Amino acid sequence: MSSMGIAILDQDKATVNILAELIADMGETPSPFIDKDKFLEAINPRSHSIAIICDDFVDVIEGTKQVYDAIEIVGIGTADGAESLKAGAAHYLKKPFRAEEIRRVLEVLLSSRQRKGAKDNGSFVVADPAMGRIVEIIRKVAPTQAPVLIQGESGTGKEVIARNIHALSKRRGGSYIGINLAAIPETLLESELFGYEKGAFTGAYANRIGRFEQADNGTILLDEVTEISQGLQAKLLRVLQERQIDRVGGKSPIKVDFRVISTTNRDIEEEVRSGRFRQDLYFRLNVIPIKVPPLRSRRDDILPMALHFIKKIALREDIQEKTLTREAKDALLNYPWPGNVRELENVIERSMILSEGNAISVEHIDQAPDSPMTVRTASSVGSTIHDMEKSLILQTLNSVDNNRTRAASLLGISIRTLRNKLNEYTGNGQFSDGDGAYPASETTAEPMET
């Protein structure tokens, strides 16, 4: 991995020069700035992994972190650091600080980046034969330039597969840039994807490269691609066809070299049939289709994944690894996991933190009194997985007076996943589990999934 630069922004030229010299002595490349506008023009994750920013520029800390989440920020200044940390700084050092202090912080961040690079090789736990077949597809597809479309429910590990493909590809030395298209307002998506020129609109104080340019010579992940509008679909199709982008306010197109991977939790074929998603764009994206089964359909993966998460959380929290009792294993195996792998990780993390001793029992898994994990085998003998899942969701909704946001949180799934599940169960405008009817329509405003 080539060395990445460390940007510096401070009004005090002496401070900037001292930091630049220290960074150079560490064998890293400093990018010193005393001018805010020049810093904003230069900063980007292809050139910088860390930015040291004085708290005179809290707005720059916040803006940089919002636009380039991959860049770690170290705040410096004479205040208590609360504003800088709230704005997105990972660390804060109060002036005057010793050279050894800033060196130690930078070494930690650089080391963390290197570990992440080694860890993000796309490896994931696979025991179920269905996932084994997907692994074989990945191995064949990764070295090529073919677009990949990954379909599956929320939380099934679609992004892990995308990272795996990038890590095994010829582009692994380049950037891996992901963007969740469902999490960004439609009005901002075009400039987010394609960038903009200084002065293109009110607030465009400097040139900004978009996600496609960031992914030049690398891979771009279009997460939840079915969420974009018809107008943006047409622009995306043109970028895929011509391999060039137009920045908002730009005068000439810019060539980009990228590989595209897309994901969706919707039935994209149905989206095409209904006219909500362009067929020509679908054909462009769906050269290599990968359909990830939900966790309830690949139960051989549950316990290996649970053990993987135990090791991961023990390492992260610096606590001892714990074992699962037989009853805890049975509970995990017999639960329908509507939130898929993401929910399993949440349950293991909670159990690891709240349990005492060196074993996780079924009681630890059921720590919360209204935990959805309390619905287990005894009440579900003879039921299908689909029926167990439906019963679990309806009972959870009933226990929280039909508060969907609270129910989704308890179930460990997104609002969108819960809404999709409810739509599956909808009959003539409502359905009931015997304890109450639940309207199929949305009754309250709900946050967008992120």
Descriptive report:
By secondary structure, the chain is of the alpha/beta class. The chain folds into three domains: 5-119, Response regulator (Rossmann fold); 129-293, Rossmann fold, CATH 3.40.50.300; 307-439, no CATH class. It has 19 helices and 16 strands. A hairpin with an 8-residue loop joins β9 (244-245) and β10. It is globular.
Brief summary:
By secondary structure, this protein is an alpha/beta fold. The chain is 44% helix and 15% strand. The protein folds into three domains: 115 residues, Response regulator (Rossmann fold); 165 residues, Rossmann fold (3-Layer(aba) Sandwich), CATH 3.40.50; 133 residues, no CATH class.
List key phrases describing it.
five-stranded parallel β-sheet, Rossmann fold, 3 domains, alpha/beta, 450 residues
Total separate domains: 3
Q: Radius of gyration over alpha carbons?
A: 24 Å
- The unreliable regions are 115-123, 375-381, 428-450
Query: Beta-strand level of the residues, as a percent range?
Result: 5-15%
Give the structural class: alpha/beta
Helix amount: 40-55%
Structural shape: globular
Number of strands: 16
The major β-sheet equals:
5 strands, parallel
Task: Name the assembly state.
Answer: single chain
Strand order of the largest sheet: 2-1-3-4-5
Can you name the CATH architecture of the largest domain? 3-Layer(aba) Sandwich
Report the span from N to C terminus.
Answer: 30 Å
CATH topology of the largest domain: Rossmann fold
